[in-house]
Each structure stands twice: as structure tokens, then as C-alpha cells.
Amino acid sequence: MNAPLALSAEKLESLLQQLSAIVGEQRVKTDHDSRMTWGKDWTKHFEPNPAVIVFPATTEEVQAVVKLANQHQIAITPSGGRTGLSAGAVATNGEIVISLDRMNKVVEFLPADRMVRVQAGIVTEQLQQYAEEQGLYYPVDFASAGSSQLGGNIGTNAGGIKVIQYGMTREWVLGLTVVTGKGDILRLNKGMIKNATGYALQHLFIGAEGTLGIVTEAEIKLTRQPQDLKVLVLGVPDFESVMPILHAFQQRIDLTAFEFFGEVALQKVLDAGHVGKPFDTPCPFYVLLEFEGRFDAVVDDAMSIFEHCMEQGWVLDGVMSQTQAQAQNLWRLREDISETIAPFTPYKNDISVLITHVPAFIKEIDAIVAANYPDFEICWFGHIGDGNLHLNILKPANLTKDEFFDQCKVVNTQVFETVKKYNGSISAEHGVGMTKKDYLEYTRDAVEIGYLRELKKVFDPNGIMNPGKIFDL
Fold first, then answer.
1. Which pLDDT value is given to residue 6?
2. Tens digit of pLDDT for each residue in 9-28?
3. Which residues contact 234 (CB under 8 A, 6 or more apart)?
4. Which of helix, strand or coil describes residue 74?
5. Where are the beta strands (DSSP E) in 130-254?
6. Which domains can be identified in the chain, with CATH numbers?
7. pTM of the complete model
8. Which pLDDT belongs to residue 2?
9. What is the rounded distance in angstroms from the CA atom of residue 29 to the CA atom of residue 317?
10. Which residues of the chain carry a pLDDT beneath 70?
11. 8 Å CB contact between 124 and 149
12. How far apart are CA 393 and CA 405, in angstroms?
């Protein structure tokens, strides 16, 4: 497999003319602001340096751009909502960035199948709203839903706050239209629930981070809307109490969410001034759980379980929403964390283990972090109900970004060795991109990574699709 060449200056003018012929002159951007905007995601580890940004409107236009890139051996970086946290959408070496911003339409709704066909540039929240208008529900949800795009969600197999009940993005994808790295258009599974005709190729593109090709359309399954959602926020004395609370509720109630955050995370949200403290009792940790309170008996059960947890000493205090507005405010205690810690340039770890191992795993990771960063603020939060934790180390004001990141990287080996010990993942839902690439071996062994490389050769023989992401060629 040949590595793609960086775009040389002498090729640029001819290339721009050919790209303009495909998508129109106004849809090709080379100015500095455009390249900096569409050439990066939410990570701050790498400086963007794309050559050109292209805005196709159809699968066929994407295909034409990919074929042109193959002809000239120029790398391509797909770009969605650019909310990624692993540098999977950062273009650092003169790439063509293919933005899917224009490909944001609902193509077809099939009510009998409870399925919608959409272009990959549709914003997650836009898809959620469309589903609601049809009396249905798209349950994959997270803090960046207002700006993330479905294609990026598919590329990282995004999870979020409802996984405990509804699963990851993969569970909702019934079919994909993709342009492979060779420039072929594949229409995979075509929305069917039952299709026993060999390899399910659509699943290879879910979580592939654009390294095999570009998703341009998707058939998405929808479900019924949840009713009368209730939210409980509980103050917890220690890590060890979290799992007993989860087990107590799950034995009697189907939860739609079970989230976790520490006092540091809560305080950052409170400091922003958009929401108040849930109760006065000081607590080192908090859990937020959600369930459908359609029947009085279910709500009564929840209160009974809460009282039991209090008696056991697992809960110090708690509050349950009585209105939809109260439920939304309680959710903001969890959902506003990423936004409110962003000014502190957090060094993020997105790790997961089996739920069974969570208490011991957290204890070991917390000891590693405390020993190595006694003076840093540590911000814990995550989707603990499915074993996914977000460990955020906040940058002190007296350190530069590079100094801070260098210090944080010192203990990565210890953290990821602990992940490996518990057969966990170094990236639960944010992808690998470039920030986790050097640590892939802690979750995937050498033989498995070898198979991944061979798969890439099949779909992208010239190595032009998002090179340098997940693994090196």
C-alpha cells in the first residue's frame, strides 16, 4: 500500500479547478479561516493544516472527489460536526477535507418500518426532532447532539447517556451508503432487519473513523417515545456505593440512564451559574438515574429503593424531579460538564471495563492519578451504568498546554495497563483517532491489528482515507 503524498504547491491550482468542476467554485475553500475551522475537531493536541475544504451535496459528488484524490494520491479527511475528542477529524498534512455539512437532508421516511433514510451530514438533534415529529424516538444522545453529525457518530460508534437502555449507535443503523477508499459506491443492507446473505459489511464502517471510506447516507431505526421520564440525583459517599445503587434499582426498574460525576465536575457546572445545587448535603460523588414513571407503582418503587439505599449508607441525600423542567435542570448537572470544563483544557481519558469490574477499576485508576498528580484537579464523570468512565485532568493556569499534556502522558502507560488488566477499552465511545493511536495495543493485540490493516487495504488500497488515524500504515 502506497502512502498518500502531501499536496504540492504546483498541483494546487489544477486540483482546485477539478474540484470546482465537481462541486462548484463556491463549494471549494482554501482561505485560512475555512481551513482552520473545517480542518480540526474539539481536540487541541494537533495543529490543523489541510490544503482545501470541499462541500459535496450528493454521494456521487463524494465519489468523484475520492476518485480524484486517488488519481493524484492526495489524502482525504472526512469532516462532520467536528465534535470528536480523539483527533479523528483533524487534517494535519495538506489533505482534502470533505465536509458533509451540505448533506443534511431526510431522504425518506418509512413509517411501517419505523425507519428513516438520512444523509450523513444531518445533525444528531435534527434527527431526534424529526423522529419526534413522527411520534417516534431516536435514543442516541449526548452533550454534543446539537452540533455533532450522524456520519461522525457512525464513524466512532457514538454512545452517550442512554446506552444502558438503548445501546450504541450501531444498534440503530439498519443500512449504509458508503463511498469506499477506492471510489466505489456500496449500498449495504438497505435497511433490512433480516438479511442472511453473508458478511454484514455495514458493520465494518461503524467505528472505522473514515479510514475505509465515507458514509454518505444511513437507514436509521426509530423506536417509541419514552413517557413520563423521572430523574433522580443522589449524593454518594464513595466509589464503592455506586454499583450497589445501580443493582438495587435495576432489580426492580428498567433504567434509561445511570450517570456518575464527582464534586469537582459539579462545582464547575455550578460556577457557570446556569443551574443550582440539587441539595445542600455535601457529597464527594453523585449519580443521576432516569426511568419511565408512567405508572404510580413504578414511582413508588423508585422511592422505596431510594429509602433502602439511604438505610444502607449508599446514599447521603437525593432529589427526584416532579416536572419536566426540573428533570431538564437535573440533567444539566451532568450534561453541562464537558462545556464548563473546556476552558481548563482537560486531558481526557475515555475508558471502559465490564460493569462487574468498575469498583475495583476506579479505585486503582484513582490511586494512580492521585499519586502522580497530587496538585491537579481531577474531574470524574461518565456513563457508569455501562462501564464507561471519563477521567479528565484539568490544566493549571501556570502550565502551558504542551507542558500540561506532556505531564499527563507520563502516566498513560499505567492507566492503560490497568485497562488491559481488566480486559477493557482505551476508548469507549470517542474513537482512537490520533490521540489514542499509540495505545491501541492495550485493547487490541498485534494479530487483531494486523487484520485491521489488511481490511483497510481491501477498501482503501492507496491509503488515502484518513491516514494516520487508528493505526499507521
1. 56
2. 777 889 999 999 999 999 99
3. 245, 286, 287, 288, 289, 306, 309, 315, 317, 318
4. strand
5. 136-137, 173-180, 185-188, 213-221, 223-224, 229-236
6. 9-102+455-459 (3.30.43.10), 106-224 (3.30.465.10), 229-338 (3.30.70.2190), 345-442 (3.30.70.2740)
7. 0.93
8. 44
9. 54
10. 1-8
11. yes
12. 10
